[in-house]
Design goal:
- The longest helix is centred in the middle third of the chain and has 43 residues.
- Helix content is 47%, strand content 6%.
Length: 340
C-alpha cells in the first residue's frame, strides 16, 4: 500500500484469540544482505571468494547424528537381536519363584467400620434433606418471580401493526355456516392473544411455525410467554395444529373480528432493526443485506464499524441469536423467517 513506509507491513491473523489486525515494522537484516540496494555514493559489496570449509569440524558436529543413524539401521538392529537371542539361549533356564503368600488383615477394626457406615448413612440422609430444601426453595422462587418474569417478557412495543391506507378497510370475517358455534365477533382478547391470531389470520392457507408466529407478532421467540399463549389459544379452540404448523380456526377468526394487515418483508425487517438497538440493529442490517450468504463474526464486526476485539460484538450477536433473528455461530446468517 502507498500508505506504508519502508519496512512497514500490515499483520492480519483473523483466526487468533484474540484476532490480530495491526501495523508492524520489520527490522533490518543483521547478517550480510546481498540483495540490498546500495545507498547513494556507496558501492555495492560483493563477496570475493568462498571461505574454506572445515570438513573435520562438521564431521565432529555430525558424529552424534551418524551414531544415531547407525543405531537405527535395520541391519544393525537385526544383528543386535540375533546376538541377544544367542545370549538368551546360552543361559540356563530357572524356575520362576513361587508367589508370596498373601495374608489379608483388616485395616479397620469392626467398631470403627460400624461407626464409618453409620456416618455414611447420616451424610446421605443430610444430602437428601438438602436436595429437598433446595427444590422447595426453587418452587417458592418460581412462584414469587413468575409475575415479574411475565412482565419482563412482554413485547417491546406491543404487536406490530400498520395503519390502514385511505382506501383500505378491515376485512370482516364471518364464521362458516357449517362451523361449530363460535363466540361473538370481536370477543375480548388479551393483547398478545390478538397479535397471534392476527398473524395467523394473515397467513390463512399455510401453517405457521411457533418461532415464525413469535417473530411476526413482535415477541421474543425465546419467551415462555409464547408457549403459554399458544397453549391458551389451542385450549379455547381458537387455533389448532402442531407447533410446526399452527393455523387459526373459524372460532378464532370470529373471536378476532376485523384485523389489520401486518408488515412482512422489508417492513418487518425495518421493525426489528429499529427495536434491536444501535449495535445489534446495525449488525442485523449487515446480515440482512448479505442474505442468504453467511458471514463470519469478524466480517460482521468490520462491516458494522466495530472492532473485532470488542466484546460488545459478541454481546450484540448473542442478543440477536436469543431473539432468533440470526442463525449459526461460526457462520452467521439472518433468520429465514424475516424474508418469508
Amino acid at each position: 500500500m502507498s500508505s506504508l513506509a519502508l519496512g512497514e507491513a500490515w499483520l492480519w491473523e483473523p483466526g487468533g484469540d484474540p484476532a490480530i489486525f495491526r501495523k508492524i515494522r520489520i527490522r533490518e537484516r543483521r547478517t550480510f544482505n546481498s540483495s540490498a540496494t546500495p545507498e547513494p555514493g556507496k558501492q555495492r559489496v560483493e563477496p570475493r571468494r568462498l571461505a574454506p570449509v572445515d570438513i573435520e569440524k562438521f564431521r565432529k558436529r555430525m558424529a552424534a547424528t551418524i551414531e544415531r543413524r547407525k543405531a537405527e539401521d535395520p541391519k544393525e538392529l537385526q544383528k543386535q537381536i540375533a546376538d541377544l537371542k544367542r545370549q538368551l539361549a546360552a543361559k540356563p533356564t530357572t524356575q520362576p519363584a513361587a508367589p508370596a503368600k498373601v495374608i489379608e488383615k483388616p485395616v479397620l477394626q469392626p467398631k470403627l467400620l460400624a461407626r464409618l457406615e453409620a456416618a455414611t448413612k447420616a451424610y446421605g440422609a443430610a444430602v437428601d434433606r438438602s436436595i429437598a430444601a433446595v427444590e422447595a426453595a426453587r418452587v417458592a422462587h418460581g412462584e414469587a418471580i413468575g409475575p415479574i418474569y411475565r412482565a419482563l417478557n412482554a413485547p417491546l412495543h406491543g404487536p406490530i401493526t400498520l395503519p390502514h391506507t385511505p382506501n383500505e378497510t378491515p376485512r370482516p370475517v364471518a364464521p362458516s355456516r357449517h362451523a361449530a358455534p363460535a363466540r361473538a365477533t370481536g370477543e375480548s382478547l388479551g393483547r398478545v392473544h390478538r397479535a397471534f391470531l392476527t398473524v395467523l389470520a394473515n397467513r390463512q392457507g399455510k401453517g405457521t411455525r411457533r418461532n415464525q408466529l413469535a417473530v411476526f407478532s413482535g415477541y421474543s421467540a425465546k419467551s415462555r410467554h409464547v408457549d403459554n399463549t399458544i397453549s391458551t389459544l389451542r385450549s379455547s379452540g381458537h387455533i389448532q395444529g402442531p407447533g410446526d404448523s399452527l393455523v387459526i380456526t373459524e372460532a378464532g377468526l370470529a373471536a378476532l373480528g376485523p384485523w389489520d394487515q401486518l408488515p412482512t418483508g422489508k417492513a418487518l425487517i425495518d421493525y426489528w432493526i429499529r427495536e434491536a438497538g444501535k449495535a445489534p440493529g446495525e449488525m442485523l442490517r449487515v446480515l440482512v443485506d448479505a442474505y442468504p450468504r453467511a458471514m463470519t463474526r469478524d466480517e460482521v464486526a468490520c462491516a458494522s464499524g466495530y472492532s473485532v476485539t470488542s466484546r460488545h460484538v459478541d454481546n450484540s450477536l448473542s442478543y440477536l441469536r436469543t431473539l432468533e433473528l440470526i442463525e449459526g455461530r461460526g457462520e452467521l446468517r439472518a433468520a429465514g423467517e424475516l424474508f418469508e
